[in-house]
Design a protein that fits this description.
75% of the residues lie in helices and 0% in strands. The protein is globular and about 70 Å long. It has 273 residues and is mainly α. It contains twelve helices and no strands.
């Protein structure tokens, strides 16, 4: 037993390294093959070129898909964050029957198969008489993004010092005024982090968009369509590399803001700023 305990940490570290390599090594090949001079992604590389990146802005369909993804991402992130603020505030501040059940239902899209969620939303949209468009995609992305927004915002509201709201009320401020002038500024890092996380998820989301989009394709749908043509593969690799770095950048900023807010909560006795 002592020998097992001695060697177990080393085996666990090795397993973690192998797991990360298995998970992320294919992603590393994406930017490598995106600068390959040949259209076929294989080793050895035929040469290094930025030609595939230079062709991206000259593709009208790609530009349209990019704008569609930006519109959907901004709309979904704002709506998800607003709804997440209300839900997180309610769950962390008040105690009422069914609070845990409601929280579980909000988080359900995280564990449900996304294909089932997409098909269910498609049926609901058709029953409501809504035509498939970017609007229906936004509604689908809001459903998927709210659990992530709740996760970020709940930690922000839990670290909030309620005595500040009490002081504002003692000074004669209304409940809404206190929420707008005291609470929201205090949890601003969590709100910004929620916006960035939701935008990133919406930007990369494919299954919901595949079922709910109409004639206006988003970037993931555009990439899926281009994969049918072998000659388009280098451009897809270049576009995928840009999306990869954009997602990594946004998630890094969101995580920095989250940790910054957490440190301030600990250092200032609950002051979340």
């Amino acid at each position: 037993m002592t020998a097992i305990r001695r060697y177990l940490p080393g085996w666990l570290s090795s397993y973690a390294v192998l797991y990360l390599l298995f998970l992320y090594l294919p992603v590393v090949f994406l930017p490598i093959f995106s600068v390959n001079a040949a259209a076929t992604p294989k080793f050895p590389l035929s040469g290094v070129t930025l030609h595939w990146y230079e062709d991206l802005p000259r593709t009208p369909a790609l530009i349209d898909a990019t704008w569609n993804s930006i519109i959907v991402g901004i709309s979904a992130s704002i709506l998800s964050t607003v709804l997440g603020i209300l839900a997180a505030r309610s769950i962390t501040r008040y105690r009422y029957p069914g609070r845990r059940a409601i929280n579980g239902l909000i988080m359900a899209p995280l564990v449900l198969p996304e294909v089932i969620v997409a098909i269910s939303m498609l049926l609901v949209m058709l029953q409501l008489g809504l035509s498939l468009s970017l609007f229906t995609v936004v509604l689908g992305h809001v459903l998927v993004c709210i659990p992530y927004s709740m996760t970020v915002l709940t930690s922000g509201f839990e670290g909030f010092d309620r005595s500040l709201e009490e002081a504002s009320a003692d000074l004669g401020e209304s409940a809404f005024g206190t929420f707008r002038r005291v609470t929201l500024p205090m949890v601003a890092p969590a709100i910004i982090s929620s916006l960035l996380v939701c935008f990133t998820i919406s930007l990369d989301e494919f299954i919901i968009a595949f079922f709910l989009t109409g004639t206006e394709a988003t970037l993931p749908i555009y990439i899926w369509g281009q994969l049918r043509f072998a000659a388009k593969l280098p451009g897809v690799l270049a576009l995928g590399t840009l999306l990869l770095f954009a997602s990594f950048l946004l998630m890094t900023i969101a995580e920095i803001l989250r940790r910054r807010a957490a440190r301030r909560t600990q250092n200032e006795g609950g002051l979340y700023a």
